[in-house]
């Protein structure tokens, strides 16, 4: 499957990203870490739905902070829950709402049940904000470092295999709490300056039989 995030002001040309995804062999669906729009205007959501026509596979997404700008209910009305969990071919996938740089208490209850259900399986966790910013100087993580550490400990104890984040408009490959992690914010939003990272998405190949996963970066520009 593909993972991407942070389209925002590039919504009018995200069809180019979707076309590249559709050209990539063997992808079954797309997961998004949010910020598909800039302000959450009705017109933006309408355009986003038009652009989705370029995809020939399903698109699932949690929300980012930009979906909260005007009225978060517009997302729920059009697309449903802010957090999504499902099992596909023996792999558990959980993408949860951290759009306010925190997780709601009620969401933690649901996450606990998902983590319990995913024990003994490959489990991939995604959310918009990285709990802890791997660079640090930007403070682009959760509002509470205590919460961030507690969440990462929870994911580690549950033996989550991979964590995927957005929010930062670049590409980072790192570990958090011993779990492999990627930040992929290459959907087209204003990129980090001078980092040389353009539009991109991640291609993930997961084998529940071998209990392995591999991540490739697919460049669009």
Molecular shape: globular
- If helices are DSSP runs of H or I spanning 4 or more residues, what is the number of helices? 5
Question: Compute the gyration radius: what is it?
Answer: 16 Å
Task: Please provide the count of β strands.
Answer: 11
Structural overview:
The two termini are 20 Å apart. The mean pLDDT is 96. The chain is built from 5 helices and 11 strands, in the order E-H-E-H-E-H-E-E-H-E-H-E-E-E-E-E. By secondary structure, the protein is an alpha/beta fold.
Quick synopsis:
This protein has 221 residues and is of the alpha/beta class. It has helices spanning 14-23, 42-51, 73-79, 105-117, 145-157; strands at residues 2-4, 30-32, 59-61, 84-88, 91-96, 122-127, 162-165, 171-176, 179-184, 200-207, 212-219.
Write the layout of secondary structure elements.
Elements: E1 2-4, H1 14-23, E2 30-32, H2 42-51, E3 59-61, H3 73-79, E4 84-88, E5 91-96, H4 105-117, E6 122-127, H5 145-157, E7 162-165, E8 171-176, E9 179-184, E10 200-207, E11 212-219
Parallel strand pairs: 1-2, 2-3, 5-6, 6-7, 7-9
Antiparallel strand pairs: 1-10, 4-5, 8-9, 10-11
């Amino acid at each position: 499957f593909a993972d991407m995030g942070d389209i925002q002001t590039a919504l009018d040309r995200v069809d180019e990203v979707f076309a590249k995804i559709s050209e990539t062999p063997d992808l079954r669906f797309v997961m998004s870490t949010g910020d598909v729009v800039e302000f959450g205007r009705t017109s933006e959501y309408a355009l986003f739905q038009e652009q989705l026509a370029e995809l020939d596979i399903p698109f699932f997404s949690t929300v980012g902070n930009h979906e909260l700008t005007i009225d978060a209910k517009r997302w729920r009305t059009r697309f449903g829950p802010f957090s999504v969990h499902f099992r596909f071919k023996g792999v558990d996938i959980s993408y949860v709402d951290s759009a306010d740089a925190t997780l709601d208490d009620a969401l933690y209850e649901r996450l606990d049940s998902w983590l319990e259900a995913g024990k003994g399986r490959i489990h991939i966790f995604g959310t918009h904000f990285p709990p802890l910013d791997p660079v640090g100087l930007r403070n682009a993580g959760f509002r509470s470092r205590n919460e961030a550490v507690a969440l990462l400990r929870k994911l580690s104890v549950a033996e989550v295999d991979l964590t995927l984040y957005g929010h930062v408009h670049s590409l980072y490959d790192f570990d958090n709490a011993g779990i492999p992690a990627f930040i992929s914010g290459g959907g087209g939003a204003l990129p980090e300056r001078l980092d040389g990272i353009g539009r991109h998405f991640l291609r993930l190949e997961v084998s529940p039989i071998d209990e392995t996963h591999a991540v490739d970066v697919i460049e669009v520009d």
